[in-house]
Specification:
The chain is built from six helices and no strands. The protein has 185 residues and is mostly helical. The protein has one domain. The longest helix is centred in the C-terminal third of the chain and has 30 residues. It starts with a helix and ends with a helix. The relative contact order is 0.19. About 3% of the residues have low confidence.
Protein backbone atom coordinates (compact mmCIF):
# COMPACT_ATOMS: atom_id res chain seq x y z
CA UNK A 1 0.00 0.00 0.00
CA UNK A 2 1.34 3.43 -0.97
CA UNK A 3 1.09 6.43 1.31
CA UNK A 4 -0.19 9.49 -0.59
CA UNK A 5 1.31 11.99 1.89
CA UNK A 6 4.67 11.96 0.10
CA UNK A 7 2.97 12.42 -3.28
CA UNK A 8 0.92 15.42 -2.16
CA UNK A 9 3.72 17.00 -0.13
CA UNK A 10 6.26 16.79 -2.97
CA UNK A 11 3.70 18.06 -5.48
CA UNK A 12 2.70 20.97 -3.23
CA UNK A 13 6.32 21.96 -2.55
CA UNK A 14 7.22 21.89 -6.23
CA UNK A 15 4.03 23.79 -7.07
CA UNK A 16 4.98 26.53 -4.58
CA UNK A 17 8.45 26.92 -6.07
CA UNK A 18 7.15 26.97 -9.65
CA UNK A 19 4.27 29.34 -8.96
CA UNK A 20 6.44 31.81 -7.02
CA UNK A 21 9.08 31.75 -9.76
CA UNK A 22 6.48 32.21 -12.50
CA UNK A 23 4.82 35.08 -10.63
CA UNK A 24 8.11 36.94 -10.27
CA UNK A 25 8.96 36.37 -13.94
CA UNK A 26 5.54 37.60 -15.02
CA UNK A 27 5.90 40.71 -12.82
CA UNK A 28 9.15 41.62 -14.59
CA UNK A 29 8.90 40.23 -18.11
CA UNK A 30 11.39 42.76 -19.43
CA UNK A 31 13.98 41.57 -16.92
CA UNK A 32 13.26 37.91 -17.60
CA UNK A 33 13.39 38.49 -21.36
CA UNK A 34 16.80 40.13 -20.92
CA UNK A 35 17.98 37.13 -18.89
CA UNK A 36 16.79 34.74 -21.62
CA UNK A 37 18.58 36.81 -24.28
CA UNK A 38 21.80 36.86 -22.21
CA UNK A 39 22.03 33.07 -22.48
CA UNK A 40 22.68 33.59 -26.22
CA UNK A 41 21.02 30.31 -27.23
CA UNK A 42 17.93 31.43 -29.13
CA UNK A 43 17.96 33.30 -32.44
CA UNK A 44 17.73 37.06 -32.06
CA UNK A 45 14.15 38.19 -31.60
CA UNK A 46 12.90 34.93 -30.05
CA UNK A 47 13.72 35.76 -26.42
CA UNK A 48 10.50 37.63 -25.65
CA UNK A 49 8.23 34.89 -27.01
CA UNK A 50 10.23 32.18 -25.26
CA UNK A 51 10.20 34.11 -21.98
CA UNK A 52 6.41 34.39 -22.08
CA UNK A 53 5.96 30.73 -23.04
CA UNK A 54 8.37 29.60 -20.31
CA UNK A 55 6.78 31.67 -17.53
CA UNK A 56 3.26 30.59 -18.49
CA UNK A 57 4.31 26.94 -18.75
CA UNK A 58 5.97 27.20 -15.34
CA UNK A 59 2.73 28.61 -13.89
CA UNK A 60 0.64 25.91 -15.57
CA UNK A 61 2.90 23.18 -14.18
CA UNK A 62 2.54 24.60 -10.68
CA UNK A 63 -1.24 24.85 -10.97
CA UNK A 64 -1.60 21.31 -12.33
CA UNK A 65 0.51 19.92 -9.49
CA UNK A 66 -2.10 21.25 -7.06
CA UNK A 67 -4.98 19.40 -8.76
CA UNK A 68 -5.00 15.78 -7.55
CA UNK A 69 -6.35 14.44 -10.85
CA UNK A 70 -3.73 16.39 -12.84
CA UNK A 71 -0.59 15.86 -10.76
CA UNK A 72 1.06 13.51 -13.27
CA UNK A 73 0.53 16.04 -16.09
CA UNK A 74 1.85 18.81 -13.82
CA UNK A 75 4.92 16.72 -12.99
CA UNK A 76 5.61 16.12 -16.68
CA UNK A 77 5.28 19.82 -17.45
CA UNK A 78 7.48 20.69 -14.44
CA UNK A 79 10.15 18.31 -15.72
CA UNK A 80 9.99 19.97 -19.13
CA UNK A 81 10.45 23.42 -17.57
CA UNK A 82 13.30 22.21 -15.36
CA UNK A 83 14.97 20.37 -18.24
CA UNK A 84 14.93 23.50 -20.41
CA UNK A 85 16.39 25.64 -17.64
CA UNK A 86 18.99 23.05 -16.68
CA UNK A 87 20.09 22.48 -20.27
CA UNK A 88 20.53 26.24 -20.76
CA UNK A 89 22.51 26.50 -17.52
CA UNK A 90 24.77 23.57 -18.40
CA UNK A 91 25.28 24.82 -21.96
CA UNK A 92 26.41 28.26 -20.79
CA UNK A 93 28.56 26.86 -18.01
CA UNK A 94 30.28 24.58 -20.51
CA UNK A 95 30.96 27.68 -22.66
CA UNK A 96 32.49 29.41 -19.64
CA UNK A 97 29.68 31.98 -19.35
CA UNK A 98 29.08 32.42 -15.63
CA UNK A 99 28.55 36.15 -15.18
CA UNK A 100 24.99 36.37 -16.46
CA UNK A 101 21.65 36.53 -14.68
CA UNK A 102 20.35 32.98 -14.21
CA UNK A 103 16.78 34.17 -14.83
CA UNK A 104 15.58 32.26 -11.77
CA UNK A 105 13.70 35.26 -10.37
CA UNK A 106 11.55 35.35 -7.30
CA UNK A 107 12.06 35.01 -3.59
CA UNK A 108 13.24 31.44 -4.05
CA UNK A 109 16.26 32.56 -6.06
CA UNK A 110 17.91 34.19 -3.07
CA UNK A 111 19.14 36.99 -5.31
CA UNK A 112 20.57 34.57 -7.87
CA UNK A 113 18.46 35.90 -10.68
CA UNK A 114 18.08 39.58 -10.10
CA UNK A 115 19.93 41.46 -12.83
CA UNK A 116 23.21 39.65 -12.33
CA UNK A 117 23.55 40.71 -8.69
CA UNK A 118 23.87 37.19 -7.31
CA UNK A 119 27.08 36.08 -8.96
CA UNK A 120 25.65 34.43 -12.06
CA UNK A 121 25.57 30.81 -13.09
CA UNK A 122 27.03 27.86 -11.22
CA UNK A 123 26.89 24.08 -11.30
CA UNK A 124 25.07 24.33 -7.97
CA UNK A 125 22.06 25.66 -9.87
CA UNK A 126 22.12 22.52 -12.02
CA UNK A 127 22.17 20.41 -8.85
CA UNK A 128 19.33 22.50 -7.38
CA UNK A 129 17.22 21.85 -10.47
CA UNK A 130 17.93 18.12 -10.21
CA UNK A 131 16.63 18.17 -6.63
CA UNK A 132 13.50 20.01 -7.78
CA UNK A 133 13.03 17.43 -10.54
CA UNK A 134 13.15 14.69 -7.92
CA UNK A 135 10.15 16.33 -6.24
CA UNK A 136 8.15 15.51 -9.39
CA UNK A 137 8.95 11.78 -9.15
CA UNK A 138 6.20 10.78 -6.70
CA UNK A 139 3.53 12.22 -9.01
CA UNK A 140 5.02 10.44 -12.01
CA UNK A 141 5.34 7.06 -10.37
CA UNK A 142 2.29 7.04 -8.08
CA UNK A 143 0.30 3.85 -8.39
CA UNK A 144 -3.22 4.49 -9.59
CA UNK A 145 -4.56 1.71 -7.43
CA UNK A 146 -3.54 0.27 -4.10
CA UNK A 147 -2.89 3.55 -2.33
CA UNK A 148 -5.01 4.68 0.54
CA UNK A 149 -6.99 7.88 0.45
CA UNK A 150 -5.93 10.91 2.40
CA UNK A 151 -7.30 11.21 5.90
CA UNK A 152 -8.10 14.53 7.52
CA UNK A 153 -5.00 14.32 9.73
CA UNK A 154 -2.82 13.82 6.65
CA UNK A 155 -3.44 17.46 5.73
CA UNK A 156 -1.15 18.61 8.56
CA UNK A 157 1.59 16.21 7.46
CA UNK A 158 1.31 17.30 3.81
CA UNK A 159 1.40 20.97 4.79
CA UNK A 160 4.33 20.45 7.17
CA UNK A 161 6.39 18.41 4.71
CA UNK A 162 5.69 20.80 1.83
CA UNK A 163 6.49 23.95 3.78
CA UNK A 164 9.63 22.36 5.22
CA UNK A 165 10.81 21.47 1.71
CA UNK A 166 10.07 24.97 0.41
CA UNK A 167 11.83 26.48 3.43
CA UNK A 168 14.91 24.33 2.83
CA UNK A 169 14.83 25.37 -0.82
CA UNK A 170 14.81 29.07 0.15
CA UNK A 171 17.63 28.55 2.66
CA UNK A 172 19.77 26.65 0.13
CA UNK A 173 19.26 29.40 -2.46
CA UNK A 174 20.20 32.15 -0.01
CA UNK A 175 23.32 30.24 1.07
CA UNK A 176 24.25 29.69 -2.57
CA UNK A 177 23.74 33.38 -3.38
CA UNK A 178 25.91 34.37 -0.40
CA UNK A 179 28.63 31.94 -1.45
CA UNK A 180 28.62 33.24 -5.04
CA UNK A 181 28.76 36.87 -3.86
CA UNK A 182 31.70 36.11 -1.58
CA UNK A 183 33.47 34.26 -4.38
CA UNK A 184 33.15 37.31 -6.62
CA UNK A 185 34.57 39.80 -4.09
Amino acid sequence: MNDPVLLYAASAALACVLLLGALEKLKDMAGFTAAVAAYRILPEGWSRGFAWAYALTEAAAGALLLAPSRQAAGAQLALLVLAAATAALAFNLSRGLRDIDCGCSGPASGGLGRNGQGGGLSWWLVLRNAVLASWAAPALFAAADGSRGLQWVDGAAVFGFAMSAVGLYFIANHLLASHLKLRNL
